[in-house]
Give the backbone structure.
Amino acid sequence: MMMSPRPTNSAPPNVSWSLRYIEESDHDALLRLWASCEDLQPRLMAHRSNLCRYLERNPECSFLAEGPSKQLLGCIFAGHDGIRGSLNHLAVHPQWRRRGIARALVRRALEALTAAEIAMVTLWIYDRNQDGTAFWHALGFEQWQQCSTWSLALNTSI
Ligand SMILES: CC(C)(COP(=O)(O)OP(=O)(O)OC[C@H]1O[C@@H](n2cnc3c(N)ncnc32)[C@H](O)[C@@H]1OP(=O)(O)O)[C@@H](O)C(=O)NCCC(=O)NCCS
């Protein structure tokens, strides 16, 4: 996969945007945002009930960015197990990239996890995702080479 040329956005450069907590009612707009992004498959989040469970378990940790007419521009989900945190489903609409929206979303998510006394975060990303890899590198995240991710489906109906 090729990296997107810079800039990838086509929205006017000085249009303002703001961050707020994600709510259950954002589900449809989130699905549209993820569908507009390459290489994002938040399969479990396709179910509104899973979104609700996530937000209930991890209150005030997940954020979205919205534009002047309240349109959804980007999102990040953050959660933790009491010790270690995880960042999930980060996405910025293709027309709004390279304006610092993802950086701001990550900053707010990390502040929320820090407030919950979480000392470290992890995330998953496809090796082929060059834009995402460049982004996490730019923010100082480190790739672990010494282990791989393993999984087992416990319930294929959710
Ligand atoms: C990765 C993604 C979230 C970045 O969103 P963004 O709002 O454009 O990122 P930012 O503007 O905050 O970028 C911050 C810095 O990251 C780096 N960066 C971001 N995108 C980059 C790219 N495509 N190529 C190289 N560096 C990049 C740059 O250093 C950038 O700072 P700069 O613009 O001042 O040079 C966005 O490209 C996206 O939604 N991609 C598809 C979904 C995805 O891959 N999600 C991550 C899965 S873990």
Remarks:
- The chain is about 30% helix and 20% strand.
- The two ends are 31 Å apart (CA to CA).
